[in-house]
Amino acid sequence: MLFHDCATAPSPRCVRIFLAEKGVTVPVQQVDLMGGKHMGPAFRALNPWCTVPVLELDDGTCVSEIDACCQYLEAAYPEPPLMGRTAAEKGVIAMWAHRVAVDGIGAVAEALRNGAKGFKDRALTGIHAHAQIPELVDRGRTRSAHFLDWLDARLAESPFVAGDAFAYPDILALVAVDFARWIRITPGDTHPALNRWHAAVSARPSAQA
Amino acid sequence: MLFHDCATAPSPRCVRIFLAEKGVTVPVQQVDLMGGKHMGPAFRALNPWCTVPVLELDDGTCVSEIDACCQYLEAAYPEPPLMGRTAAEKGVIAMWAHRVAVDGIGAVAEALRNGAKGFKDRALTGIHAHAQIPELVDRGRTRSAHFLDWLDARLAESPFVAGDAFAYPDILALVAVDFARWIRITPGDTHPALNRWHAAVSARPSAQA
Q: Which residues of B touch A15 (CB under 8 A)?
């Protein structure tokens, strides 16, 4: 297996943390996103959607998208489970993962990609150019602020995002909260539960990934 | 288990088809989205994100979001598998599912919700109002057209979306293609592989769900 990564990007960080929690080490190929290597023909042959992370399996099969990479790893390396053991756990974990991916990581990306000069005509990932839409900067920022609020409320009632145990949604939420710094949105005194949780998950060795 | 559904909405249709493919029948509660019942306190207690589908399990646990409902059902009713048997199959299926969900269903929803009068201030699902953004109608339509194009290209090289067997991404893609009719985007003569596939999956009894 070869892991196509970008050390500075939030999406592949989810997979890096997932791998670290599994105790799995894989060879890594850095993809130069700033240099546009993900849009070139060599990378496009691996992932026509032109995004990292990508897991290139030994038979040449490529798995891209955070969720798909983690589904693969969960099945290939079941211990410790990060996506639930029972059917109900799997469902609840997938539910919270979706909420954090869309309303956390997605919200921050919406604000960032529609405003930053470096993302001109790259408001969405993929092969097609999409112009920035200024209203989406405000919408993304509003949604990102909502994300911190509901994550704090959730963590006031639950030790971890999906329940009593550290799991996949905590990985996504850690990446989302840290990613929100890019748009200068950070938890504050009104987010005590979120701050408690963030300190705890940031202290895990995997958070360095 | 109680399935909170809305017979006219595309998202819960994914779960209806999934259930039908599993041969599982569950009690159904229709949620009156047009009447705003999903925003009321009773439904919000089940799903604070105010969306269908929701699977309410016998112990009161609620699982919302298409992907999470299907992950639950796949684990609870493993046969026939719709999300892969091997780790590689699970990863590849999750990858295609993500692509269809975001670039198919998500693209059509972007065009529809930002333009239709009935979605004024409801450009995104959830408890918070989000104003419609006219540019997103055009972007959503462009993305929906791209979706049909790449789905056709994919189905020219593969019998089903994720490979040789009917699976979860075919369910999402069927719903996405049918949902695109709502914005008057339909496959045409330039999509022969998509048309072949659409006829085949539409002929399955589950497509009536």
A: none
